[in-house]
Every structure is written in C-alpha cells, then in structure tokens.
Specification:
It contains 12 helices and 13 strands. The chain folds into 3 domains: 8-75; 86-113 and 212-391, Rossmann fold; 115-205, 3-Layer(aba) Sandwich (Rossmann fold), CATH 3.40.50.1100. It has helices spanning 93-96, 115-128, 141-153, 167-175, 187-201, 214-228, 245-260, 280-286, 313-322, 332-346, 352-366, 388-391, and strands at 8-13, 19-21, 38-42, 86-88, 100-105, 133-137, 156-162, 179-183, 204-205, 236-240, 269-275, 326-330, 375-380. The chain is of the alpha/beta class and 394 residues long. A hairpin with a 5-residue loop joins strand 1 and strand 2. The chain has a 6-stranded mixed beta sheet with strand order 4-5-13-10-11-12, sandwiched between helices. Strands 8-7-6-9 form a 4-stranded parallel beta sheet, with helices on both faces. The protein has a 3-stranded antiparallel beta sheet with strand order 2-1-3, with no helix packed on it.
Length: 394
C-alpha cells in the first residue's frame, strides 16, 4: 500500500474499458476511435477504513485519501479544501413547502469555488508523476485554482481565459504568478489555443475531463454529501452544468460508496441546470439524445456555464437518464433575480451558476416534479464576489 493508503489500482476508459497503468501520465483513451474519459479505479475489497474512522480525520477532502490517487503524502498539494457545509434553506417556506431544501456552499473552498477540489488532486498527482508545467482553458474559477495550487507545488501554470471574464479572475491568476492569455471567445476557443500550445511546448493539459484526476477531486463532494446526510442520500440534487465534471464526480462517488457498503442502491435524481446561452445538454435531454450539439449564444453572467459542448456530454446525459433526473435552462434575468433573493433572505452571496439552481428549483417545484416531503440539495459552486463586473457593469 502507498504512503497515503491510496487504493488506486489503474485507470480505465469509461467507453471501451481499456486499462492504463497508474504509474504513467495519461490524458484520455489512446484508441483513435475512442478517446473517451479515463476513470481512476480502486481496490475497494482491500479497504479497512470504516465510516466511524472518519470522525478522527481532518476536516478536508483528504479524509477520503484511500479513495484518492496520490500515492505519497509528500506530493499532496492542499490548501484545506473540502468538507464544505450543508446548510438548510429555511427562509423560503412558502416556496419549498413540505420539502427539505439544503445547499452545499462550495464558495468556502480555497480560491472560493469547487474547482479547488479538482485542481488540488490533479496538481498533486501531476507533481507525483513529474509534471513541471501545466495548461488549462478556463471560464474563470478553474484558472484561479490551477494558479494557486501550481504556485504551491512549484509547477508553472499557463492559463487561457475569455476576455469577457470578470477582472477578479484575471487578477487572481496573475497574483499567483501564472501566465495568462486572454482570448476573444468562449472556453471552447480557449481550449483550441491551449491544446495547440500544450502540444507545441510539452505542457500537461488539465482541461476538463481530458485528464483523469480533476474528476477524483470533484467526486469528494459526493463522499461528503453521503456523510453529511448520515449515509442517506437526498432525493434530488441540482447541479450547475458547464463541463459537468462535478455532476459526473458525484455520481462516481455514489457508485464507489455502494461498493464499499456504506450506502445502498438508492440514487438521487440528478438535475443539470444550464444557461440559455449554452444549453446543449438541456436540449439533448429534452429530445432524448445520447449526445449534445455545439450551442453558444454568447455572453452569460454565469461564466462557468458558457461551455458550448462539454467533452463528456455523453456521460452527463447518461447520468441524467439513469437517475431518472431532469434538466432546466435558465435565462440571465432569472439568474439575477434568484441571486438577489438568496442574498436578501439567506444572507449568502452565491455565484450566478449556483443562483441558477434556485430558479430551477422553483420551476421543478411548481411543476410538481419535486414532490412534497422530498429532500433536495443545491450545489452552490462558487462565490458571487468574483462576478461583480458581470453583476454591476460600468
């Protein structure tokens, strides 16, 4: 067993099942006809950790270190990420009715978003495998997280970000010493530039789901949700879906927890919430499609939702179908109203991506898709403070 107790055994393609060594640096499946996402696999049979043992562990996501991929504790690059609170949303009883509604506040992570989880694990593992320079296309939060964790790890970070991104994100990246390139376009356009430069310079590409370890950091949200709800999962989980790594990671965590015997077969109905600007997943789901088409109608105040075509669109849609879930597309004006409602009544300044969930909840509650007595969890993925340029343009 490794020095951290990691039970990682290998990587496996989610589409064709081809296996890859954990000791080598990988991106996606190398079969030219596949090129799907690689998923980290673990030896759950050998696990000796119990649910009770977690009470003695640190209040970070590394409390689940057996099920994370870093082999040597010296390579863990952490800023204290994870174990964010689950808070009852009790101030809207006239809307929530008999439902028990909670939100998990990911804005309390280092760099103020859930992206800290994925980049902590990705940079830790990259460091362990000898990476010295990394590159990422980002709508904002992932760039800041990569810059921060790379700074601590001694890795050089190269970041490609849309010009329309609020200045707070750009300042954050520069403060951590990363190289920032501003691109006139969406994250997809940034991805084209970053991919070209990665090949040219030999930088390791940590784009969403184009390497296997950001997903492992994101899945810790699922472990925490199960633990915080005393191993009884909510009936419905609403998730803001741009690249979709968080939604996929949470679903992966639930499968792993069932293998551990810590939860049963019951799953939440997973619901993807998108912006009207980039709602390809929503349109595909509504039309019972297995993949999405490229959709970009330009700027949205929810920068993280401007992902015209997620790399793992097939995985996202499969989860929605398998969980008997749903999708909601939200207009920017409704996001703004929801953000203000949450701020005025709950005293919390959510990111626009998170605020979209509150509007989506109201839509699903009014249609009775969310029924009386159900437990619902909203994932606020970041802090509204970074989005001031979008909310109060000059």
């Amino acid at each position: 067993m490794s020095k951290t107790g990691s039970l990682l055994t290998h990587l496996e393609c989610v589409a064709c099942g081809k296996r890859y060594s954990k000791e080598e640096l990988h991106t996606v499946c190398q079969d030219e006809n596949c090129q799907a996402v690689l998923s980290a696999q673990y030896d759950f049979v050998s696990n000796t950790l119990t649910q009770g043992d977690l009470r003695q562990r640190s209040a970070t996501m590394w409390r689940y270190r057996e099920f994370l991929p870093v082999g040597d504790a010296e390579n863990i690059v952490t800023l204290g990420e994870g174990l964010t609170p689950v808070i009852p949303l009790t101030c809207f009883s006239e809307i929530t009715g008999c439902c028990r509604v909670f939100y998990k506040d990911e804005s309390l992570n280092p760099t103020c978003s859930f992206k800290a989880r994925g980049l902590s694990v990705a940079i830790s593992r990259a460091k362990e495998l000898g990476v010295r320079e990394a590159v990422i296309p980002t709508a904002g939060n992932a760039g800041g997280a990569l810059a921060a964790y790379s700074a601590k790890a001694g890795v050089k970070a190269h970041i490609y970000m849309p010009k329309q991104t609020p200045n707070a994100f750009k300042t954050e990246v520069r403060m951590f010493g990363a190289e920032l390139w501003e691109i006139d376009g969406s994250i997809s356009d940034c991805g084209q530039f970053s991919k070209r430069e990665a090949v040219k310079h030999g930088w390791f590409d940590v784009s969403t789901l184009k390497e296997p370890y950001r997903l492992e950091g994101k899945k810790t949200m699922g472990y925490e949700i199960a633990e915080q709800f005393d191993w009884e999962l909510p009936d419905v989980i609403l998730y803001p879906t741009g690249g979709g790594t968080g939604l996929i990671g949470i679903w992966k965590a639930f499968d792993e927890l069932e293998q551990l015997g810590w939860i049963g077969a019951k799953r939440p109905r997973m619901t993807a919430v998108q912006s009207d600007s980039c709602n390809g997943i929503h349109l595909a789901f509504r039309n019972n499609k297995s993949s999405s088409t490229f959709k970009d109608n330009g700027f949205t105040i929810a920068n993280g939702l401007r992902v015209p075509k997620p790399y793992a669109d097939k995985l996202i849609l499969k989860i929605l179908y398998d969980s008997r879930g749903n999708s909601v597309s939200v207009h920017d004006m409704d996001i703004l109203r929801a953000l203000r409602e949450i701020a005025l009544s709950a005293g919390s300044f959510w990111s626009p991506e998170g605020a979209a969930l509150w509007h989506a909840f109201k839509v699903l509650r009014q249609s009775e898709w969310i029924a009386d007595g159900e437990t619902v969890l909203l994932l606020n993925t970041g802090s509204g403070y970074k989005y001031l340029d979008n909310l109060f343009p000059t």
